[in-house]
């Protein structure tokens, strides 16, 4: 059985509408005929004798302006990729496969004379992986849609190489680094033995 609570012990709370009426300031909206793209909201003083929370400490005159969104016609869309300037897909595969397979052979030869614990070269699913034990791991793979070779290096991080027709090499456009030269410098520093990948 529910406990009986005398009505005189129940605190009477203000009605929601009355409570909101006392806490929220009054606003009036009117249309600005001088500018059809703007509407103005101004604070209206409460009627005499109506006690409300004083918001004057935040702002003496509350006035809010709203306008239409900027003309979307002025926004510029991202530049589209010009695929006509890229290698043909069959030519890309020919160049990229030849590069990755040549790197695989030279890295395997390099590992025979390199005293690095955990040194291992693996190629599968068109991904070349070079493990250097505690020194880190290199990952080299093709990115066909962009006609690029991607490199993940424990030294320089991720890089994306494009084929440069002038130098006949894979070049990272941001730093102008050559893929073979970059690997030669980093591996010589990590392993302490020079390597030629050109």
In brief, what are we looking at here?
This protein has helices at residues 16-23, 89-112, 179-191, and strands at 27-31, 38-43, 63-67, 119-124, 127-132, 137-143, 148-153, 157-164, 169-172, 177-178. The protein is an alpha+beta fold.
Major sheet details? 7 strands, antiparallel
Strand content: 25-35%
Cα distance spanning the termini: 91 Å
Percent helix: 10-25%
Structural classification: alpha+beta
Provide the spatial order of strands within the biggest beta sheet: 4-5-6-7-8-9-10
What's the count of strands? 10
Low-confidence stretches: 16-31, 36-42, 55-84
Describe the model.
It is globular and about 40 Å long. The protein has 198 residues and is an alpha+beta fold. The strands form two sheets. The chain has a seven-stranded antiparallel sheet with strand order 4-5-6-7-8-9-10. A three-stranded antiparallel sheet has the order 1-2-3, with no helix packed on it. It has helices spanning 16-23, 89-112, 179-191; strands at residues 27-31, 38-43, 63-67, 119-124, 127-132, 137-143, 148-153, 157-164, 169-172, 177-178. The N and C termini lie far apart (91 Å). The chain is built from three helices and ten strands.
């Amino acid at each position: 059985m529910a406990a009986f609570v005398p009505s005189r012990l129940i605190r009477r709370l203000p009605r929601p509408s009355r409570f909101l009426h006392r806490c929220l300031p009054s606003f009036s909206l009117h249309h600005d005929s001088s500018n059809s793209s703007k509407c103005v909201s101004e604070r209206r003083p409460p009627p005499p004798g109506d006690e409300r929370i004083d918001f004057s400490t935040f702002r003496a005159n509350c006035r809010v302006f709203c306008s239409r969104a900027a003309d979307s016609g002025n926004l510029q869309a991202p530049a589209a990729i010009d695929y006509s300037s890229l290698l043909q897909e069959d030519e890309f595969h020919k160049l990229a496969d030849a590069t990755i397979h040549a790197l695989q052979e030279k890295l395997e030869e390099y590992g025979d004379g390199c005293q690095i614990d955990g040194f291992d070269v693996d190629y599968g699913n068109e991904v070349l992986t070079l493990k250097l034990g505690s020194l880190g791991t290199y990952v080299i793979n093709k990115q066909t849609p962009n006609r690029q070779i991607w490199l993940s290096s424990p030294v320089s991080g991720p890089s994306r190489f494009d084929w440069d027709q002038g130098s006949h090499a894979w070049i990272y456009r941001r730093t102008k680094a050559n893929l073979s030269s970059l690997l030669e410098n980093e591996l010589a520093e990590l392993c302490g033995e020079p390597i030629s990948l050109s």
